[in-house]
Design a protein that fits this description.
Anion-transporting ATPase, ArsA/GET3 family, 52% helix, ATPase_ArsA/GET3, 14 helices
């Protein structure tokens, strides 16, 4: 089996915008939240941003829906803090009109008229420009002494199927808008997203479709000159067989007498049906392990660092997110 690179590289340690994507259902919001908490350890200040309107972060942390405002989400050991922001395209456009055209009141009037929805429908790329533009503002914002407001920003981005288009749409908008604030805003977003300050991490499961979509997303990111970061393999399940016995068991060659002997040594006297069930479960487990090993070999072909998050069958909440963050730190996230 090909072994993928592991751990957090020095290049990733210098990234300030961590974009997290993944096929739907892989747990990308959980991955983004765990990464944000890990990055906040040691007294750092991290902003966790979502842009899809699902309020996944609020559900994950058991709190009320996030507004279009940066609010405290959780504290971490060492004095660090994670704040959260749900970016809404309409609110971002109102903010944009107020900042660059002094149209705060007029913008609110336009919203009542439905003009904002009309504008984002007329130019579909405008919605993504507004969302990424707000993220860029959070990444680059500084205080009066020139210090960044946040040490890192983590973006819970759209799924892998459209993440490259979402991140690269600002290049097209920059070409359309030849002068003025729209051009300047678009160019600033392009510079950030295509720089070494940004990395796109991919959350995957060790299953055929998520692995295939992850590899396709890496190719799309490379083609768009966007920088793939690490692969977060989620819901990794433990292997309960010695390494040398997996292939044998997967072929169905499980010694039932050996199973019976082991149970009797433990003081048990299993019925034949129980032994048959245990043998079947062993074969099923071995087949799953072999399949997951093959999936990991496929992921290794991308040449990206791989971090693992264990399966949590009892569900995910804020406490589990903190536990997953600790595991990421053990794998080098800093």
């Amino acid at each position: 089996m090909t072994t993928p690179p592991s751990g957090w590289t020095d290049e990733l340690a210098r990234v300030r915008l961590h974009v997290v994507t993944g096929k739907g259902g892989t747990g990308k919001t959980t991955g983004a939240a765990a990464l944000a908490v890990a990055l906040a350890h040691g007294g750092r200040r991290v902003l966790l941003v979502e842009v899809e309107g699902r309020q996944g972060l609020a559900q994950l942390f058991g709190r009320s829906p996030l507004p279009y405002a940066e609010e405290h989400l959780t504290r971490v050991p060492g004095g660090g803090e994670v704040r959260a922001l749900a970016v809404d395209a309409e609110a971002a456009l109102l903010e944009y009109l107020s900042m660059f055209y002094n149209l705060g009141f007029a913008g609110r009037t336009l919203r009542k008229m439905g003009a904002i929805e009309f504008a984002t429908t007329l130019a579909p790329g405008l919605r993504d420009v507004l969302l990424t533009g707000k993220v860029k503002e959070c990444v680059t914002r500084t205080d009066s002494r020139g210090r960044h407001a946040y040490d890192a920003v983590v973006l819970d981005a759209p799924p892998t199927g459209r993440v490259a288009k979402f991140l690269d749409v600002t290049r097209a908008m920059a070409d359309l808008a030849k002068v003025g604030p729209i051009r300047d805003q678009s160019e600033g977003v392009v510079r950030l997203l295509h720089s070494g300050e940004t990395a796109v991490h991919l959350v995957a499961l060790l299953e055929e479709l998520p692995v295939q979509e992850t590899l396709e997303a890496v190719d799309e990111l490379d083609a768009a000159d966007l920088r793939p970061g690490a692969v977060l393999v989620n819901r990794v399940r433990p292997v309960r067989l010695p390494a040398g016995e997996v292939d044998t068991a997967a072929r169905g060659a499980v010694d039932a007498e050996h199973v019976v002997s082991g149970l009797r040594n433990a003081g048990l006297d299993p019925a034949p049906a129980v032994v048959t069930g245990l043998v079947d479960q062993t074969v099923e487990h071995a087949l799953r392990v072999r399949s997951e090993r093959a999936a990991m070999t496929q992921l290794a072909a991308a040449g990206l660092p791989v971090l693992e998050l264990p399966d949590r069958p009892d569900g995910i909440d804020a406490g589990v997110v903190h536990e997953l963050a600790e595991l990421l730190i053990e794998q080098g996230v800093r």
